[in-house]
Request: fold
Amino acid sequence: HTTGVEKPTVKRYESYKRDSQMPQAIGELRILVDYRAQSIILPIFGRPVPFHISSLKNASKNDEGSFVYLRLNFLSPGQIGGKKDELPFEDPNAQFIRSFTFRSSDSSRMNQIFKDIQDMKKAATKREAERKEFAD
Amino acid sequence: MATKTIQYDNIYLNLSSQPGKLRIAPSGLGWKSSALTEPFTLPLSEIRRFCWSHFARGYELKIILKNRSPVSLDGFAQEDFDGLASFIKQNYDMGIEQKEFSIKGWNWGDTEFLGSELVFNVNSRPAFEIPINSVNNTNLSGKNEVALEFSNVKDSPVPSAQADELVEMRLYIPGTTSKEDVAEGED
Reply:
């Protein structure tokens, strides 16, 4: 049992503070994995939009014909297996992005991105588990 | 003597893969590239307003039009702003709205419709904008879940640089009664 001292707090994370911290490669208008910022940068109608690895639930990949579909699922309320303390519930009216699906014909690059995202998520999950263990 | 036009090299039109030359004159704008036989032109009479923000290849001047989807001009340097702003003020008597986008990496916020775009805001700042005419289909894909399917609108005369194409987004929308439902369920 916990002592009751630790209240579930909103996990604070932030991909970038300034535009200049984003990698130059955003100019390529492609999906990017930025380990330094623990973030995935998605090209959404041309705009590079970062998502922190802590907001990601999982990723899946599908090959269909000459295209690769990459789906990124994010943490949101009402999901099976979702943990309450992972969600920033300060605003009950908040809307959540649950998923983005991207399509690309560049299968080798997409395979690498998929692997990088999975590796980054695994490492982040492991670090979080260790942090919790030491906090006890 | 005031200059009649200003020109910027290496400007990308509507996410084009190749840059072109942008010329801004008192009567409107023109964009020229080797990929086009005729230059792309935009008369002043079609322009409603201007926005400026950090974008993929530098800074973007976005032009909101009266009757069509916005036009994106990307590839400016931050230092270009003052020159652009004073030219547009002098010749068009319009300002340029400087927008700061959220780069926090959060997936929660709220959506709003602004003109021909759906904007996702994070912490009172826009995170991204979706042109409504690129939404192909919407459906309720679950309890409190909306799915938007996209088709890339090819209204640009130039080849696009976008290799990874967004085809679907799912949003969790809290219901108006769900707050009470959740509260009851938790008891």
